[in-house]
Write a structure and sequence with these properties.
Order of helices and strands: HEEEHEHEEEHEHEHEHEHHHH
Number of helices: 11
CATH architecture: Alpha-Beta Barrel
CATH class: Alpha Beta
Largest sheet: 7 strands, parallel
Number of strands: 11
CATH superfamily: NADP-dependent oxidoreductase domain
Strand content: 5-15%
Strand order of the largest sheet: 3-4-5-8-9-10-11
Length: 304
């Protein structure tokens, strides 16, 4: 039986992604805490088609086979390419699969991202995502960025309209602080925040704590990478500790980084992405990596 014909909820138990446990988004969307980020299913500079579309389709299907039931994408990935590949690979979708997408960027070229939070653009983005994903309603639609050129209230108001119109079930925000979330909450409930966060780069630590208190899912992107630390020596010190823990467990650095995210908070929903099945399987194996108290103390240590 193919993954398309199988009820995802009945097959996910015991899969690698299920070892991460579950999180409930918006009080009703129950997903495994190891998701998949579909940004890398595109060309260089997150622009145009991928070099190997067939392998990307295999990645998506394999992810679901391994228990992933939360896929994060955006209309700007490609643009449009990621959403189109998801539908090609997985439609008709198995029951229980949550596809979260985002809008709020225009893509004039590779590596170029231009904020556009005008209400008319956000409506067009949502309509395009619905069509490409072949959905009547988006379970989780996230504002990719709050556009500083457009009054924030206008952007939040259109998000509320999406929910009232029935085109969106739940709303999230990306790259925001606590004040942004509270401002948006005056218009529409916010159920997720997607900020850059990892064991090396903890700039958004206060937002993680805020989301934990508020019961908001935190979706960290770039599970390991560019750090906002005081010095390169501090960054190297953190990486040395990650590498030491990885050797102790005979695991990869990325697996340790993902396991740390899962251990950091029950509201954490990592979404590691890749365009290769081999890397996907390695990433999902991190859900079964149990870090000890000693590991966590070492990874949370300060100084070099």
């Amino acid at each position: 039986m193919s993954v398309r014909e199988t009820d995802l909820a009945s097959t996910a138990a015991g899969t690698p992604a299920a070892q991460a446990g579950t999180i409930t988004i918006g009080g009703e969307l129950v997903v495994n805490r190891m998701g998949f980020g579909a940004m890398r299913l595109t060309g260089e500079g997150i622009f145009g088609p991928p070099k190997d579309p067939a392998e990307c389709v295999r990645v998506l299907r394999r992810a679901v086979e391994l228990g992933v039931n939360f896929i994060d994408t955006a209309d700007s990935y490609g643009p449009f390419v990621s959403e189109e590949l998801i539908a090609e690979a997985l439609y008709p979708y198995p029951e229980g699969l949550v596809i979260a997408t985002k809008g709020g960027f225009e893509r004039p070229g590779p590596g170029r991202w231009v904020e556009n939070g005008r209400p008319e653009h956000l409506r067009e983005a949502l309509e395009g995502s619905l069509k490409r994903l072949r959905l009547d309603r988006i379970d989780l639609w996230q504002l990719h960025r709050i556009d500083p050129k457009v009054p924030a209230d206008e952007q939040f108001d259109v998000l509320a309209e999406f929910v009232r119109d029935g085109a969106v079930r739940h709303v999230g925000l990306s790259e925001v602080d606590e004040a942004d979330v509270e401002d948006a909450q005056r218009f529409v409930p916010i159920v997720s925040v997607q900020n850059r966060y990892n064991v090396v780069d903890r700039e958004w630590e206060p937002v993680v704590e805020y989301c934990a208190r508020a019961g908001i899912a935190f979706i960290p992107w770039r599970p390991i990478g560019g750090a906002c630390l005081e010095s390169e020596s501090a960054k190297r010190g953190v990486m040395r500790r990650v590498e030491h823990v990885a050797r102790r467990h005979e695991a990869s650095v990325l697996q340790v980084a993902l396991a740390w995210l899962l251990a950091r908070s029950p509201i954490m929903l990592p979404i590691p992405g890749t365009s290769k099945v081999k890397h996907l399987e390695e990433n999902l194996a991190a859900a079964g990596l149990e870090l000890t108290d000693e590991d966590l103390r070492e990874l949370d240590a300060r100084g070099d």
